[in-house]
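Methods — Computational structure assignment.
A single polypeptide chain was analysed. Its primary sequence is given first, followed by the predicted tertiary structure written as C-alpha cells.
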Amino acid sequence: MKNIFKFAIEFEQENQKFYNDCAAKANNKKLKQVFNRLAEEEKKHEEIIRDLAKTEEIAKVESDIVNDAKEVFTEVTKDFATDKGVLPEDQLSVYKEALELESKSHDYYKEKAAETDDELVKVTFEKLAIEEKKHENIMHNLVTMVERPKTWLEDAEWYHHQDY
C-alpha cells in the first residue's frame, strides 16, 4: 500500500512542478493564473495523499477549478478580438503534454481505487480521479483554444461539461 502512496505523491509533485514551469513561461497573465491554480491543486492532492498514507482525516478533495478556468478562458477569448490575447502556438506541445499528464493521473487513481479493499483509500482515489479529469478537461479546452481560437468559445466543452 505504501508504494501507491509514494508513487502518487511523486506524481503530484511532478505535475505541480510542470504547472509552475508553465506559469513561469506563460505570456498571458490570465493563462498564468490557470497554471498557478493547477499547481495549487496538485499540491493539495499531494497533501491529501500524505494524510491518507498516515490514515489521518482527509481534506475536502473536490474543487471549483473548472468554473474558475472557464471564467479565465472566457476573458482570454475576449482578447482575441484585439490580438493581444493570442496564445502562442509554440506552447501547444506543452499543453498537450499537460493533457497527457492529467489523463495518466486520472487513470492511475481510477485503477488504484478499483484495486484496493480499503474504503477510505477507494473513496479518496475515486474523488482524486474526478479532480484529475477536471484538469484533463481544462487542458483539452486549452489545446482546442490554441488550435482553433476563433471558434473555441462556441464549441468548447464548457457548455457540455458534466458536473461530478
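Note: The chain is about 75% helix and 0% strand.
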